[in-house]
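Morning run. Coffee first, then this:
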Amino acid sequence: MSAANALASAVSPDTSSSSPSLPAELASIKADAQSRGLPFSGGVDPALAWTLFSEQGVLLVDVRSNEERKFVGHIPGSLHVAWATGTALTRNPRFVRELESKIGGKDVVALLLCRSGKRSALAAEAATKAGFTCIFNVLEGFEGEIDTQQQRGKADGWRFHGLPWVQD
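And here it is:
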């Protein structure tokens, strides 16, 4: 069994239930998202995402391009399914199929991460529309929002918060 499949089975639903067993923090976030009519399971701040990923085995899926992961950095142990590819960031038409294959099913709990939290929100929405039940967006993304000096990582984002990452 691959590491991704082992992690997926650790957070997959048991067969006697119609929905996955969510960590309490995610259950609360999902209930709030549903009450507000969000088109996916909700948003998770970077620190909580790291805790869920590193301590509870929740899957973390980086939806940035290969180039972004290689040249900007990535989170060790995260999975990768590009939402968009190439320098023009053309939408990946196979995203939903690739996500399902990579995480091991539509009922697996997964956190999606991009540069600023915008593409991953779109990816989470597309996954939810395709029948995924527990897809969350990592707020702020890997680099955060662009500031008044046209720079990222100065006020928010995974790296700003000092969470683990590597660069190839």
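Strands lie at 43-44, 59-62, 79-80, 84-85, 90-91, 110-113, 135-138. Good start to the day.
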